[in-house]
C-alpha cells in the first residue's frame, strides 16, 4: 500500500479555502452532522473518509450549497457563503456518475461553465483545448459522452471542472463506478493533476486505500462527527481510536487493563503482559484499554527463538494464505483469539505448517494504546 | 369453446323452431286472413327483434307498444337498442347475419336502404291500411307510422312574440328579425328552408334546385352564429342563451317546454318527415314482424303515445281523430297548404351529392 | 419468439384484415367490381376533400402545439412534487378522460359561452355590448381538443423528467448555471424524445377527432373523420369512405415517420457503453 508523504503546502495560518465553522445539520430529529469545525487549506488534497451514513455526504452538500446548515457558517475563500446558492459559490464538482450532459459533445460539455460565464468563443476554444490536453484526451472533443469509456468520461468531467478554475474541486466518490485497475490508474492521474495544477481538492470516499494513496490530509468521519483528522501517515500509524485503527488498514486488537501509569504502557491481557511505548491522552491511569498492532509489524519466529522485542506471545499456526506479494499467517493465541501476521513473500522465507508452534513478536513502539469504547 | 358450441346448437335449434313456428303462423294467417292483431297461442314462441335508437323515447315505446303487444299476441319482442344506421344494415346483409328483423327510424334511411336492396317487400295483403292517410308514405318496402317536424325554434325569453320569424323568408331577414341564428350542418331540411326562403312554392320544392338553394343560403351564411352538428344541441343552445333562434324538432321542443325550458316552435311552414317502420330482407320472423308493424300503424297505444309526446303525428286517420284537440292543434295537418312534406326518395337519391356540396359550401 | 405468436394472430385478425378490407374497398368499386382509382381521383380533384384535409392538418398541428404549451409546465410542476402529491394531482389531470364530450361541451358553454363566466366578467368591466366569441369557432375547437389531449402529453413528459439524472442538473448548478439556463440547455433538450412521443400520440389522435370540433367548432371546422363517418353511415358510399380513410392513414404514417426521425436524432448516440 502506498501512503502519501506530501508536504502540506500551507500552514494553519493561511486563509483556508473552505472553512466549516462549527457547522451542524439536523434533518428533523435525525442528526446528520454534529457540530464540527473543518478547514480545507489552499492547494491541499483533503479526503473526507468514512462509512456510509457517517456524515461525509452532508459535509459535501453543505460546502456545495445543496443544503443549509442548521447551525454554524460556511466560508469559501474568506467569504461567508452560508446562504449563497450553489451556482454562486464558484465551486467545481465531479460526480460518481460523471454527470456529463448526454446531448452535448465533449467540447460543449467542457465549454458549458465558460459559456455560463460568457467567455468569448476564441477563449472558450483555447481553454477547452487546454483542459482536454490536461486530462490527456485532446482528440475526443467532437464525440458524445456515451461514445467514451467510463474512465474517459470521468476525465472529461474533471476537465470540465479544471477549465474554469473553481476555488475548490469537490469530488464525490468519483472513481466508485470504475473497475479496480482503472481506479488505480485514475488515482495516479488525479494525483498528478493535483500536483501539477496545485488545485484545492476535497475528495469524498469510503475507500480507505484511495484516501491513503492520494490525500494530503484525511478527515475520518464516524456517526456524524469527525473521528480523527491528520495526514495519512498519522491516521495509519497513530490512530487515536479503535474505530480509526480498524477503518484504516488491517489491525490486531487485544483488550486489557493498564498496570500503573498510562505513560509506562504496561498492560495486563488474558494472554500475558504487553508493552506499549505510545501514550494516549485519552487513556487514564489504570484504565481498561485496547491494544493494536498492525499485522505487518508482527514477526513470526520459531517458538524457542530468543529475541529482543518488547512483546512476545506463544501461538499456533491456524492457516496461511498467500496474496502474491504478501503472505498472511493466522495464529491462535493461548486464549483462543487469533492474530494476523503479514510478511513480504520471499523465496527463502521460513515456512510454518498448519499446527506449528510459533512465537509472535513486536516492538513496544508498534503497539498502540487506545481507549476502550 | 364450450360456450360457442352451446350457442351454435341452440341457434340451430332456434332456427329450426323458428322455421316451424313461422310455417305454423303462416298457415294460421292464411286461414284467419289479414287485418287485425289477434290473440294467438300458436305464436307463443314467436319472436320479433326490433332495432330502436335508445333513449327516453325507446323506453316509452317499450312501455306503450312492445309490452302490450307481447301480452296481446304472445309474440316476444326483443329490442336492440343502439345505432342502426345504414352501414350496420349493409354489413349485416353482407355477412348474412341479421341481428334484428325490424327497424323504427327515419324514412330517409328507409328509402336509402331500399335503394341498396336491404329491405323486404311488405305483403300489404296482410296489413289493414284502410285508414292510412299519406299514400306517398305507403311504400313497397316501408311505411311511415308517424311523422316528425323540423321548424324554427326560438328562445321565448330573449325574443319578443312580434319579433319571431313566422316563415323561412322571415328567418332569412336578419334586419327585420335580429337575433343570433343557428343552422344545421346537414343539408337535409336545410335546402328546403333555403328554397322556401327564396320564394319557391311548397308544391314546386322537388326536385330540389340545388343551385337556387345554395344561392339562397349564400345570403344568410355570414349571419349564422352557430352551425349545429348534434340535434341534442339545438334546444340546449337556446336554453343556454347561446342563440335566439335555431332549427329543431317539434317533439323535442314540446318536451323541453313541458320541462319548463323557455322555447317556442313555429309550426307554420315547418318541414315534416316520416318515421318509417320496415322489415329486413331475409328475416326469419316475417309474419310476426308484420303483426308488430300493424300494431304501430293502427294499434290502440297510438293515442296514448301521441298524447304523451306531442309534436309527432300519426299517419292513421282513426288514431288522429281520437287525439285530444290541443294535441291535434300542434300537428301540421295534411290539409294545411303551409305544411311541407319531405320527399324522402329525392333525398335517398341525392343525399351524398347534396351533403358533399353542402360541406364544400360550408368550408368556402 | 413464439410467445408473440398469439399476439400476431390477434393483430392480423383485428387489425390487418380489416385494414386490407379498407384498402380493397378504396380501389375496387362496389357497383362495378372493377379495380379503379376513381375514389382517390375524386378525393384529389373535388375541392371538399382537400379543404377538409387542410382543416384537419391545421387543427391537428395547432392543437398539438397548444397542448404541448399547456402540458409541459403541468408536467414540469408534477415532476417537482412529492410522489404522494403527484398521484393526487395525476387524478385531476385524468379527469377529462372520465368526462363525456357532450357534458364537456355543455360545461364549456357555462364558462365560455355568450352568458358564460368569462363573458359576464367582460361585460361587467367593458359594458353590455362586449362579447368575446370563445365558442363555435376555431378558438372553441382548440379549447376542446387541448382539454382532451393534455393527459396524453403530460404523462410521457413527466416520466422523462422524473427519469432525468438529477446530478446533471446539480452539476450545471454548481458550474454556475441559472435555473433558466439549466432548463433550456439541459432539461428541455433531454426531454425532447418525450415531447416527440407525446406530440405523436396527440397529433395522431387529433387527426382522427371529429366530435369535439363538431360540437365546439364553427362552420369550417370539418374534419376528415366527419367525412368518413358521413360516407359510411349516411351515404353508404364505402368506396369513398375507404379512400378518405387510406389518405388519412397514409398521412398519419408520414407524421409518425417524421416524428420518429426527430426522436432518432435525439437518441444522443447512446450506444452500449464500453469501458
TrEMBL record, chain A:
Matches recorded under InterPro entries: AAA+_ATPase (IPR003593), ABC_SmlMolc_Importer (IPR050093), ABC_transporter-like_ATP-bd (IPR003439), ABC_transporter-like_CS (IPR017871), Mo/tungstate-bd_C_term_dom (IPR008995), P-loop_NTPase (IPR027417), PotA-like (IPR005893), Transp-assoc_OB_typ2 (IPR013611)
A GO CC annotation given for this chain: ATP-binding cassette (ABC) transporter complex
Biological process annotations from GO: putrescine transport
Keyword Cell membrane: yes
SMART domains documented for this protein: AAA
GO molecular function, one term: ATP hydrolysis activity
The protein's enzyme class: translocase
Top-level taxon in the UniProt lineage: Bacteria
EC number(s) reported in the record: 7.6.2.11
Reaction(s) this enzyme catalyzes, per UniProt: ATP + H2O + polyamine-[polyamine-binding protein]Side 1 = ADP + phosphate + polyamineSide 2 + [polyamine-binding protein]Side 1
Keyword flag Nucleotide-binding: yes
Keywords, in A-Z order: ATP-binding, Cell membrane, Membrane, Nucleotide-binding, Translocase, Transport
Domain ABC transporter: 18-248
Physiological role: Part of the ABC transporter complex PotABCD involved in spermidine/putrescine import. Responsible for energy coupling to the transport system.
NCBIfam families: potA (TIGR01187)
Family label: Belongs to the ABC transporter superfamily. Spermidine/putrescine importer (TC 3.A.1.11.1) family.
Subunit structure and binding partners: The complex is composed of two ATP-binding proteins (PotA), two transmembrane proteins (PotB and PotC) and a solute-binding protein (PotD).
Designated name of the protein: Spermidine/putrescine import ATP-binding protein PotA
Upper lineage: Bacteria, Pseudomonadati, Pseudomonadota, Alphaproteobacteria, Hyphomicrobiales
Automatic annotation (TrEMBL), chain B:
One Pfam match: SBP_bac_8
UniProt KW keywords: Periplasm, Signal, Transport
One cellular component (GO) term of this entry: outer membrane-bounded periplasmic space
GO MF annotation list: thiamine binding; thiamine pyrophosphate binding
Family annotation (InterPro entries): SBP, TAT_signal, TAT_signal_bac_arc
Subcellular location: Periplasm
SUPFAM superfamilies: Periplasmic binding protein-like II
An annotated GO BP: thiamine transport
NCBIfam families: TAT_signal_seq
PANTHER family: THIAMINE-BINDING PERIPLASMIC PROTEIN, THIAMINE-BINDING PERIPLASMIC PROTEIN-RELATED
UniProt similarity note: Belongs to the bacterial solute-binding protein 1 family.
Protein name: Twin-arginine translocation pathway signal
Organism: Chelativorans sp. (strain BNC1)
Organism lineage string: Bacteria, Pseudomonadati, Pseudomonadota, Alphaproteobacteria, Hyphomicrobiales
From TrEMBL, chain C:
Example of a GO biological process term: transmembrane transport
Domain of life from the UniProt record: Bacteria
Subcellular location: Cell membrane
Keyword list, A-Z: Cell membrane, Membrane, Transmembrane, Transmembrane helix, Transport
Chain segments annotated as transmembrane: 7-28, 59-79, 91-115, 135-162, 182-207, 240-259
Coiled coil: none
InterPro entries: MetI-like, MetI-like_sf
CDD domains for the chain: TM_PBP2
Its membrane topology: Multi-pass membrane protein
Domain ABC transmembrane type-1: 53-259
Principal localisation: membrane
Pfam families (alphabetical): BPD_transp_1
Cross-referenced SUPFAM superfamilies: MetI-like
Recorded family membership: Belongs to the binding-protein-dependent transport system permease family. CysTW subfamily.
Protein name: Binding-protein-dependent transport systems inner membrane component
Amino acid at each position: 500500500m502506498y501512503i502519501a508523504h506530501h508536504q502540506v503546502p500551507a500552514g494553519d495560518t493561511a486563509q483556508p479555502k473552505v472553512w466549516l465553522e462549527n457547522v451542524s445539520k439536523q434533518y428533523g430529529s435525525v442528526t446528520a452532522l454534529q457540530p464540527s469545525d473543518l478547514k480545507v487549506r489552499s492547494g491541499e488534497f483533503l479526503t473526507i473518509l468514512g462509512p456510509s451514513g457517517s456524515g461525509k455526504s452532508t459535509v459535501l452538500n453543505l460546502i456545495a450549497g445543496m443544503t443549509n446548515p442548521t447551525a454554524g457558517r460556511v466560508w469559501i475563500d474568506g467569504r461567508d457563503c452560508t446562504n449563497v446558492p450553489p451556482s454562486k459559490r464558484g465551486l467545481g464538482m465531479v460526480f460518481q456518475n460523471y454527470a456529463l450532459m448526454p446531448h452535448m459533445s465533449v467540447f460543449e460539455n467542457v465549454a458549458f461553465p465558460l459559456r455560463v460565464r460568457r467567455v468569448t468563443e476564441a477563449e472558450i476554444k483555447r481553454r477547452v483545448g487546454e483542459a482536454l490536453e490536461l486530462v490527456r484526451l485532446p482528440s475526443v472533443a467532437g464525440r458524445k459522452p456515451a461514445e467514451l469509456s467510463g474512465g474517459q468520461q470521468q476525465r472529461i468531467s474533471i476537465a470540465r471542472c479544471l477549465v474554469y478554475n473553481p476555488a475548490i474541486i469537490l469530488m464525490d466518490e468519483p472513481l466508485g463506478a470504475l473497475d479496480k485497475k482503472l481506479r488505480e490508474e485514475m488515482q495516479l492521474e488525479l494525483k498528478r493533476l493535483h500536483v501539477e495544477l496545485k488545485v484545492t481538492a476535497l475528495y469524498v470516499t469510503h475507500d480507505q486505500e484511495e484516501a491513503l494513496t492520494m490525500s494530503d490530509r484525511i478527515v475520518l468521519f464516524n456517526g456524524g462527527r469527525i473521528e480523527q483528522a491528520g495526514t495519512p501517515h498519522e491516521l495509519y500509524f497513530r490512530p487515536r481510536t479503535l474505530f480509526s485503527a480498524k477503518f484504516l488498514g488491517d489491525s490486531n486488537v487485544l483488550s486489557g487493563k493498564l498496570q500503573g501509569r498510562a505513560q509506562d504502557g504496561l498492560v495486563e491481557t488474558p494472554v500475558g503482559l504487553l508493552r506499549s511505548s505510545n501514550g494516549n491522552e485519552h487513556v487514564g491511569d489504570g484504565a481498561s484499554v485496547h491494544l493494536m498492532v498492525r499485522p505487518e509489524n508482527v514477526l513470526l519466529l520459531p517458538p524457542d527463538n530468543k529475541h529482543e522485542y518488547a512483546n512476545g506471545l506463544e501461538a499456533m499456526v491456524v492457516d496461511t494464505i498467500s496474496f502474491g506479494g504478501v503472505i498472511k499467517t493466522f495464529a491462535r493465541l493461548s486464549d483462543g483469539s487469533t492474530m494476523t501476521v503479514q510478511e513480504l513473500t520471499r523465496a527463502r522465507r521460513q515456512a510454518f505448517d498448519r499446527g506449528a508452534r510459533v512465537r509472535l513478536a513486536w516492538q513496544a513502539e508498534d503497539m498502540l494504546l487506545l481507549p476502550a469504547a | 369453446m364450450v360456450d360457442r358450441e352451446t350457442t351454435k346448437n341452440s341457434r340451430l335449434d332456434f332456427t329450426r323452431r323458428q322455421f316451424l313456428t313461422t310455417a305454423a303462423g303462416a298457415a294460421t294467417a292464411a286461414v284467419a286472413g289479414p287485418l287485425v292483431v289477434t290473440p294467438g297461442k300458436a305464436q307463443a314462441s314467436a319472436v320479433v327483434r326490433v332495432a330502436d335508437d335508445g333513449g327516453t323515447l325507446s323506453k316509452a315505446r317499450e312501455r306503450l307498444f312492445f309490452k302490450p303487444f307481447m301480452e296481446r299476441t304472445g309474440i316476444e319482442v326483443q329490442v336492440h337498442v343502439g345505432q342502426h344506421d345504414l352501414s350496420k344494415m349493409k354489413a349485416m346483409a353482407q355477412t348474412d347475419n341479421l341481428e334484428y328483423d325490424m327497424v323504427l327510424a327515419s324514412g330517409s334511411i328507409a328509402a336509402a336502404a331500399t335503394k341498396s336492396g336491404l329491405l323486404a317487400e311488405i305483403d300489404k295483403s296482410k296489413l289493414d291500411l284502410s285508414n292510412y292517410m299519406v299514400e306517398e308514405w305507403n311504400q313497397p318496402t316501408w311505411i311511415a307510422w308517424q311523422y316528425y317536424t323540423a321548424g324554427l325554434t326560438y328562445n321565448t325569453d330573449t325574443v319578443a312574440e312580434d319579433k319571431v320569424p313566422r316563415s323561412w323568408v322571415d328567418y332569412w331577414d336578419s334586419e327585420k328579425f335580429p337575433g343570433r341564428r343557428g343552422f344545421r350542418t346537414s343539408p337535409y331540411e336545410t335546402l328546403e328552408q333555403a328554397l322556401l326562403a327564396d320564394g319557391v312554392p311548397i308544391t314546386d320544392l322537388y326536385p330540389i334546385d340545388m343551385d337556387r338553394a345554395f344561392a339562397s343560403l349564400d345570403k344568410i351564411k355570414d349571419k349564422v352564429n352557430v352551425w349545429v352538428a348534434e340535434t341534442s344541441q339545438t334546444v340546449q343552445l337556446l336554453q343556454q342563451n347561446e342563440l335566439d333562434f335555431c332549427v329543431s324538432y317539434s317533439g323535442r321542443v314540446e318536451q323541453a317546454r313541458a320541462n319548463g325550458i323557455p322555447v317556442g316552435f313555429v309550426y307554420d311552414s315547418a318541414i315534416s318527415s316520416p318515421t318509417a317502420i320496415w322489415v329486413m330482407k331475409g328475416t326469419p320472423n316475417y309474419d310476426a314482424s308484420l303483426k308488430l308493424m300493424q300494431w304501430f300503424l293502427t294499434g290502440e297505444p297510438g293515442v296514448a303515445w301521441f298524447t304523451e309526446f306531442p309534436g309527432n303525428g300519426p299517419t292513421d286517420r282513426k288514431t288522429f281523430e281520437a287525439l285530444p284537440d290541443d294535441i291535434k292543434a300542434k300537428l301540421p295537418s295534411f290539409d294545411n297548404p303551409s305544411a311541407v312534406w319531405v320527399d324522402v326518395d329525392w333525398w335517398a337519391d341525392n343525399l351524398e351529392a347534396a351533403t358533399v356540396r353542402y360541406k364544400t359550401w360550408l368550408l368556402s | 419468439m413464439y410467445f408473440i405468436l398469439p399476439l400476431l394472430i390477434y393483430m392480423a385478425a383485428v387489425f390487418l384484415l380489416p385494414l386490407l378490407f379498407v384498402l380493397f374497398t378504396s380501389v375496387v368499386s362496389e357497383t362495378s367490381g372493377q379495380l379503379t382509382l376513381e375514389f382517390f381521383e375524386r378525393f384529389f380533384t373535388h375541392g371538399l376533400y382537400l379543404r377538409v384535409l387542410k382543416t384537419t392538418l391545421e387543427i391537428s398541428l395547432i392543437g398539438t402545439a397548444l397542448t404541448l404549451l399547456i402540458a409541459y409546465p403541468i408536467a414540469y410542476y408534477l415532476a417537482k412534487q412529492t410522489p404522494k402529491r403527484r398521484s393526487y394531482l395525476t387524478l385531476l389531470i385524468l379527469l377529462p378522460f372520465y368526462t363525456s364530450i357532450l357534458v364537456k361541451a355543455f360545461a364549456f358553454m357555462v364558462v365560455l359561452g355568450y352568458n358564460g363566466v368569462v363573458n359576464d366578467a367582460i361585460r361587467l368591466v367593458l359594458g353590455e355590448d362586449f362579447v368575446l366569441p370563445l365558442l363555435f369557432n376555431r378558438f372553441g375547437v382548440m379549447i376542446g381538443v387541448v382539454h382532451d389531449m393534455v393527459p396524453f402529453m403530460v404523462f410521457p413528459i413527466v416520466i422523462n423528467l422524473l427519469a432525468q439524472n438529477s446530478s446533471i442538473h446539480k452539476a450545471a448548478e454548481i458550474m454556475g448555471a441559472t435555473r433558466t439556463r439549466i432548463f433550456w440547455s439541459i432539461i428541455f433538450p433531454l426531454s425532447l424524445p418525450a415531447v416527440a412521443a407525446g406530440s405523436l400520440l396527440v397529433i395522431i389522435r387529433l387527426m382522427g377527432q371529429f366530435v369535439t370540433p363538431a360540437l365546439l367548432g364553427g362552420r369550417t371546422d370539418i374534419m376528415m373523420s366527419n367525412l368518413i363517418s358521413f360516407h359510411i353511415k349516411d351515404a353508404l358510399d364505402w368506396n369513398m369512405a375507404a379512400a378518405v380513410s387510406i389518405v388519412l392513414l397514409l398521412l398519419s404514417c408520414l407524421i409518425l415517420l417524421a416524428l420518429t426521425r426527430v426522436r432518432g436524432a435525439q437518441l444522443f448516440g447512446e450506444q452500449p457503453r464500453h469501458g
